[in-house]
Amino acid sequence: MRYFNKKVILGGGVLCLVCYTYFSQNRLSYSDAEHSVDSSKPYLGEGINVKKSLTTDKISTNSTEGESEQISTPKPANLQVQVKDVSQLKKYSDDWCIADIELNEEDLRYANDQVNDWNVFQGKARIKSPNSSYAEEVGYPNNNLIISYEELPLEELRELAVNGDKWAMVAYVQNPFADNKTKDEIAKELLIIGASHYALEQLVLSSISSAKTSYRKAGEVNQETLDHIVEAVKYVYWGAQNYNFGGVGPFISNVSREPLKSNLPMELLLPLMGDKIKSSYQELASWVDIERQERGINIPDVSKAVKNEYAKNLAIRKQLSSNEIKLLSKLDITTDNVFGNSYCVTQYLANLNNQLN
Q1: Among residues 246, 312, 250, 306, which one has the least CA distance to residue 21?
Q2: Distance between CA atoms of 230 and 311, rounded to whole angstroms?
Q3: What is the pLDDT of residues 177-205, one digit of tens each?
Q4: CA 351 to CA 305: how far, in whole Å?
Q5: Over the range 118-146, which residues count as b (16 or more CB within 10 Å of their CB) and which as e?
Q6: pTM for the structure as a whole
């Protein structure tokens, strides 16, 4: 029993150190909500300024199978603070990966501002819903941008969302009591305008939930089940290709636990569906690009700080969910392997391993 307790304590300590690194700049991870959706071709969404949408089914929010995967911010004690050698610090224009360690104070602030601006552009503002488990403000990044929408009557919030109010849209797709057909339509619109963080959560979880429903009805893995999995993975990849981790956490939290892990084992299914996932991803990417061109929507260039922040997030995920990330990285979906080990990912992994040893 003593040996078991030591293993539990040691494992908890390792996870705290990983999470502490991830939250060193007080940024949040991911949340889930269970939905169901029919993956079809784009169509004109009801009451929304969207020329096309990919969703048709109305779905229920009462299920608890897709509860949130939220990594809380630990408060480690007695950690040794690494003292920087000022003479060795770099400028933003230099080659660097780990901002907290490598950049001087002024350029670190600039890098952090670049990441924060990107998060705002991506609509990464979390509502304080009754189902949220965070007790501290750190659990609600950029909540000040969305707080005025939180207490609105649902119909009023929906009206603002379907008429193109960005933050109303972001709030609506996070609302557990909102109509899910409308949520999926709004999520599609958010992909187009770039505020896609919580939109990807909605779309990934809708597809996963539909896969579960299809499996339960058929009592086996059928083509409909596989099609929904393809939908989920294409959103995960589209997000990653656009430096957005909004769909990764919800996908991994579902496929890595029971009963989905046994009923729909991704290590067996994904390698068989690579070509279909790639085709579906390309269709989605093309659709979003065409919509942006037709509407004259310009997406800002991705800064070095944002790319390196993505590398950090990926390194953390490789530590916490190595099997699932490895499965995703083996799929030949995009020209560049967005789940592979770039130079900066490798640097972050080395830094994490140093802290754990």
Answers
A1: 312
A2: 25
A3: 999 899 999 999 999 999 999 999 999 99
A4: 17
A5: bbebbbbbbbebeebebeeeebbbbeebb
A6: 0.75
